[in-house]
Amino acid sequence: MKRVLLASAAAMAIAAASSAAQAAGEIVITYKDDVSTLDPAIGYDWQNWSMIKSLFDGLMDYKPGTTELIPDLAESYEISPDGTTFTFKLRPGVKFANGREVTAEDVKYSIERVVNPETQSPGAGFFGSIAGYDEMSGGEADSLSGITVVDPMTVEFKLSRPDATFLHVMAINFGHVVPREEVEKWGADFGKHPVGSGAYNLTEWTLGQRLVFEKNQDYWREGVPNLDKITFEVGQEPTVALLRLKNGEVDIPGDGIPPAQFLEVKDDPEYKDRIVEGGQLHTGYITMNVNTKPFDDVRVRQAVNMAINKDRVVRIINGRAVPANQPLPPTMPGYVDDYEGYAYDPDAAKALLADAGLADGFETEMYVMNTDPNPRIAQAIQQDLAAIGIKVDIKSLAQANVIDAGGNGTAPMIWSGGMAWIADFPDPSNFYGPILGCDGAVQGGWNWSWYCNEELDAMAQKADAMTDPAMAAERETLWGEIFLKVMEDAPWAPVFNEQRFTIRSARMGGDDALYVDPVHIPVHYDAVTVTDAQ
């Protein structure tokens, strides 16, 4: 018997969450760094993630403020009894910003564009279960045999194996739909001239100064978005952004509350009700490039794990996290409760280095995003490593430069803070494939340790083939085993699992969850409101 879901109720859920029948008002959001790209096939950082979600649509999405899957461009979908065929009926009448209707051909083109190795998309591996993936990603085919355009409004996906995460994959940015003619028109500059079918259109991008989003007047969802205009001002130091928020000039400081001012703001009665706290599926970690000496030696990587005083790092961010001992955060299925990880033990770390022939230590580099508190965290890690003989030169750079160094393999070490992993979707698979699996260890990928264990990849595929809900406990156990084996190989040093805090202006409305949205990170721009719109 086929499982079928219709999208009408889902569309109503998003419209209800936006809480207003007519869009009105403008807001200002600040960021320290400029945005690297707004191309859904390329963009993969916390800053551009929700921007892209507001410019484009995918077949699936999430109910605002939750991890509940709902149809988006899909009006309905069917899944075959064996879990290997997904058929999506598209919603008629949805238009791109250039005025053309979205069709099944656009869906097929968009997914194949991500998988095409020439695109160098960091999200290609998400589509590894679609039939024909290996041939296309290997350059042996120019299309995916598993995607069929049944008719202009119907697209079918055949998988080479059952995939428990497939509907989630259809909701992430890499699955968002783009018009071929606009991509071909702009080429590599499409990310600066994005054309989608989302709630907003990009109307201005002055590099180093601002981006302006304006309401899509033809958006298919009634009552969405609530705002007429969003201005993202870039080049704003977080401390300046907070001051401007206090002065009523800024509505959301995108980089959050600066750590140095956190306690002051938190204890101020004026801001008590405007600070929003939310849990998140997050891990901050240090990557070690396993292709770079001496990090090709597991003993060196294990020594780094033993050298980090995680409690001290957590104190640097005012206790807004808990120490991490494995890649998965504690609230993610598959987290192993009784695993203790590597204890803080500098003497044992020195012994491991000596055993690896490095009793006198060595010199290396660690890349870090230059937004506070990340440089200070990197300095604390630098001190910890110096105590066991590892001399670290810190490279403090803009986010885009750190991401580039990780994606091209030139960074021996990276402190991932500011870009650390927050789950794309609430499943342990997402903490493996893109950042620890072989498919992520590619140019432009996010597996910055360049770690590839084919045995674990096979175990991961087995776990994701467990689509029967009755196998959920067995699947979680298998994922736990996978991540403990990762910790034996130690390509990472997990440091902490962070809570998310933000602050909003007095006039910002909407549910708190929209400002710490677990999927539309960091803010669900489509659903937030202002209370004093004219």
Automatic annotation (TrEMBL):
Solute-binding protein family domain location, by residue?
68-440
Q: Which keywords appear in this protein's UniProt record, sorted alphabetically?
A: Signal, Transport
Q: One biological-process term from Gene Ontology? A: peptide transport
Q: Which SUPFAM superfamilies match?
A: Periplasmic binding protein-like II (SSF53850)
Query: Its GO CC terms?
Result: ATP-binding cassette (ABC) transporter complex; outer membrane-bounded periplasmic space
Q: Which CDD domains match?
A: PBP2_NikA_DppA_OppA_like
Predominant location? periplasm
Q: Which residues form a coiled coil?
A: none
Q: Which family does it belong to?
A: Belongs to the bacterial solute-binding protein 5 family.
- Under which name does UniProt file this protein? Peptide/nickel transport system substrate-binding protein
Originating species: Bauldia litoralis
